[in-house]
TrEMBL record:
This is PH domain-containing protein. Keywords: Membrane, Transmembrane, Transmembrane helix. Residues 71-141 form the Low molecular weight protein antigen 6 PH domain. It comes from the Bacteria. Pfam families: bPH_6. It comes from Micromonospora avicenniae. The chain crosses the membrane at residues 16-33, 53-70.
């Protein structure tokens, strides 16, 4: 029996939305930056080149903030599963995983651990519909293969 290969899962819809939003935000801040010139109004201040660069910088930071939402990823193989969410990453062996859940109405799938904890997997989002369902099925197959290996290697008593 051959070892299952590495499974890599990433959200699709949120990545498209975030990349488009980041590009739009950067363009908007760049356009605003080019329109900043001359006096600030009734006061004595005037817009300088530094103000324009600051606006572009704010656009870049805003775009990078939006792109953080493209960070989630799940990788799994015969040894275990690695989950990277918006904040934090976890590497779990299959021994600590009881099951993979994707409850009706839940925004994303989660790992159910033997200590009754739920580990969210933001990369498997309900918004991706069939892609997320196929990802959960692939993870369940890997988990089941691990359980099968455990029962095969267990000594008969």
């Amino acid at each position: 029996m051959s070892e299952p290969e590495l499974i890599r899962l990433r959200p699709r819809r949120i990545r498209v939305i975030c990349w488009a939003s980041a590009a739009v935000l950067l363009v908007v801040f760049s356009v605003v930056a080019t329109s900043l010139h001359g006096p600030t109004g009734d006061g004595y201040g005037t817009f300088q080149r530094g103000d324009q660069l600051a606006m572009v910088g704010l656009g870049i930071f805003g775009a990078l903030g939006i792109l953080l939402f493209t960070r989630p990823r799940v990788e799994a193989d015969a040894r275990g599963v690695r989950v990277r969410n918006l904040v934090g990453s976890y590497e779990l062996p299959w021994e600590v995983v009881r099951g993979i859940r994707f409850d009706r109405g839940a925004p994303w799938a989660s790992l159910e651990l033997h200590d009754d904890d739920l580990m969210p997997m933001v990369a498997l989002q309900a918004a991706d519909k069939e892609l997320a369902v196929e990802g959960v099925r692939a993870l369940r197959r890997l988990h089941q293969a691990h359980l099968d290996r455990l029962t095969e290697s267990a000594p008969n008593r």
